[in-house]
């Protein structure tokens, strides 16, 4: 009799304890304790992000690369089952791979072309344009170059236009050194190359060809940093990362306007003309049907993603742009 009573007591006690713990768990989930010891419904509890698996493939602009790489690294810390690869073959390479279905997202420092969009539509898909930051294409010279502090658009065109015969600095301004200009610039697959040549030379992809090209902006940085009389151009973030070895050239739209240097403020206000621009990512509609891609795009456009834009030395857009981007992943 005593054994039976003892067993019943244990069962009852265990049941009460389990119910008490369950009640405490429910209380912790739905309420929070105020300073006075009272409880109220939690205003900050958010559901855990779904655990995802799968791959995401990104390729394209070397300008956008630092942002996508940073976002990918942070996203993979949260979603350890997702593997993201980010390459930097250039905007045109990214678009070509997006058309072929080889990647999920194309990074691009230019807008998608009509013919590129049409090729994707022909495959019963669609490229979704998402502006993600502001950039200023920055004309740079070596840190020891103290004479080319500012230049006009016309002077830049004289150097970079198709079939240009300019070889030395004193051919631009007679008071400048009688030294050869070593030129470095993005490769022809680069959206930055297209943007710069259209903004400065008046026609996209029309440029002199006797310069050192690379789709890797770090190669351009090293080239200009290693030659006292060199000049190059690339995205603002790469300049900011290398200010100790490079100078940015302020730009004058014409001889009668003040020179404007690239900065967070002048790019944000688009007063750094004509080289301020938006940069983009282009996921496809079919890619967004994949849960891991959908959640990645949500994260890219979240407040945390916007902080990573700034951490990568770019300028974030007004909130309306990110809100509009998120409408595609509701």
Descriptive report:
The protein has 330 residues and is of the alpha/beta class. It folds into two domains: 54-134 and 279-329, Periplasmic binding protein-like II (D-Maltodextrin-Binding Protein, domain 2); 138-274, Periplasmic binding protein-like II (D-Maltodextrin-Binding Protein, domain 2, 3-Layer(aba) Sandwich), CATH 3.40.190. It contains 13 helices and 14 strands. The strands form four sheets. A five-stranded mixed beta sheet has the order 4-3-5-14-6. The protein has a five-stranded mixed beta sheet with strand order 10-9-11-7-12. Helix 2 (65-78) links the parallel strand 3 (54-60) and strand 4 (82-86). The protein is elongated, with a radius of gyration of 27 Å. The N and C termini lie far apart (64 Å).
Question: What are its keywords?
Answer:
330 residues, alpha/beta, D-Maltodextrin-Binding Protein, domain 2, 2 domains, 5-stranded mixed sheet, 39% helix
CATH class of the largest domain: Alpha Beta
Report the major sheet: 5 strands, mixed
3D shape: elongated
Enumerate how many helices there are, as a single number.
13
The whole-number mean of residue pLDDT values reads 89
Distance between the termini: 64 Å
Give the radius of gyration. Answer: 27 Å
**Coarse structural class:** alpha/beta
User: How many extended strands?
Assistant: 14
Spatial arrangement of strands, main beta sheet? 4-3-5-14-6
Low-pLDDT parts are 1-47
As a percent range, the share of helical residues equals 25-40%
The H-level CATH homologous superfamily of the largest domain, spelled out, is Periplasmic binding protein-like II
Into how many domains do the coordinates divide? 2
Series of H and E elements: HEEEHEHEHEEEHEHEHEHEEHEHHHH
User: Based on the structure given, which CATH architecture of the largest domain is correct?
Assistant: 3-Layer(aba) Sandwich
Strand content: 15-25%
CATH fold naming of the largest domain: D-Maltodextrin-Binding Protein, domain 2
